[in-house]
Amino acid sequence: MKKVAVLLSGCGVFDGTEIHESVLTLLCLSKAGVHYQCFAPDIKQMHVVDHLTGEVDAAASRNVLVESARIARGEVKATTELAIAEFDALIIPGGFGAAKNLCNFATNGSECEVDPLVTDFINEFILAKKPVGFICIAPMMIPRLYPHGVKGTIGNDSDTVAAFNLMGGEHQVATVHEIVVDEANRIVSTPAYMLAGSIAEAHSGIEKLVAKVLEMTDAR
Q1: Would residue 11 show up in a list of annotated catalytic residues for this protein?
Q2: Section 114-124 average pLDDT
Q3: CA 212/CA 189 separation, integer angstroms
Q4: Out of 11, 28, 38, 136, which one is annotated catalytic?
Q5: Which residues, other chains included, contact 202 with Cβ-Cβ below 8 Å and sequence gap of 6+?
């Protein structure tokens, strides 16, 4: 049976993983009869946001791995525990945690860097030529991890598209219902809540992304 790693970035759209996107990903994998394992880097969150008010709680401090356990029902491992031979693919949901914790795109824009623990984790899949799916804002890490000219999508936001291209990627405009596939680099991406107005719309692209990632594992 196939096994897919899912990389989380905390819990909650404003400072961690987008919960709808992560749950939809896990549901699609489960319905496809695929085993999955959640991972997260054992690092401090950039900050903590009150999801009711939208305000940053300057006095609070949380750990990405600990917070990710909320989504994974406790079944989450640190990125350093990856045994790459056990996995066929990787999928990374979005949420601001992908741009604040996995990398610092939220603060540094096109000058962003991916956290070293996250770089090491994703590079294991790249070196093993295993497919990786990037959802929502997570594709902003693509140009930092793959060769110049790599293709991906975050939807159609002009400023974010410009940053993706400035970082060395070739952005492809896509609707919420579409995926973009870079066959050469074995990448699939979809906009999800970069464009979605509902959980049903987010599901449309995520379902296609999961299906394509699994199809690419068959082609290895």
Answers
A1: no
A2: 98
A3: 10
A4: 136
A5: 20, 21, 24, 176, 192, 193, 196
